[in-house]
Design brief:
Elements: H1 2-21, H2 39-43, H3 50-68, H4 73-93, H5 95-98, H6 109-132, H7 138-163
Helix pairs in contact: 1-3, 3-4, 4-6, 6-7
């Protein structure tokens, strides 16, 4: 149990540092930016308390907001993603989630990709809607959501596959 908590703390800190030091400095074509810190929310253990996930997601988002001076948009998007995570898991993994037997290291790659893709689209839509906060800029919001989600999805899946222990 203690090694599991230590692993989550290391993952939490590492993803924040990677996001702030490396991924926020990638600004492809002026508006495409990967947000890989959401991997922490995706990989948080399913059997753990949901309230803990919501609180940790809020802290994760607030930490990024403090580093990036972004006024709470990351915290809001992270909490929305954490709150909707059970629905995403049920949609992507089906009966495995119902029986609480989802293991991200041994899951099928298609289920994992659909889970991360839908979650990333949701997170980015909320993030850019809160960031821009203008209904007149809906095309900009959708464009940033789509292209940043694709870039985030590719980088996130690569990171998850590279650092998983028993990938099929």
């Amino acid at each position: 149990m203690n090694s599991s908590i230590g692993l989550h703390i290391i993952r939490f800190v590492t993803l924040i540092l990677l996001q702030v030091a490396i991924f926020n400095n990638i600004n492809f074509l002026g508006y495409i930016n990967p947000y890989v810190y959401i991997i922490f929310i995706f990989l948080f253990p399913i059997r753990d308390n949901r309230l803990i996930l919501l609180l940790v997601s809020f802290v994760l988002g607030m930490a990024l907001d403090m580093f990036l001076d972004s006024g709470g948009v990351h915290a809001g998007a992270s909490v929305v993603l954490a709150y909707s995570r059970p629905i995403l898991l049920k949609f992507s993994f089906g009966m495995l989630y119902e029986h609480q037997s989802v293991n991200f290291n041994n899951s099928e790659i298609g289920s994992l990709i659909s889970y991360v893709a839908i979650g990333t689209l949701l997170h980015h839509l909320v993030l850019f809607s809160l960031e821009i906060f203008n209904i007149g800029s809906i095309w900009l919001i959708l464009k940033k959501t789509l292209f940043s989600s694709i870039f985030t999805l590719i980088v996130s899946i690569l990171i998850i596959i590279l650092f998983s222990q028993n990938r099929k």
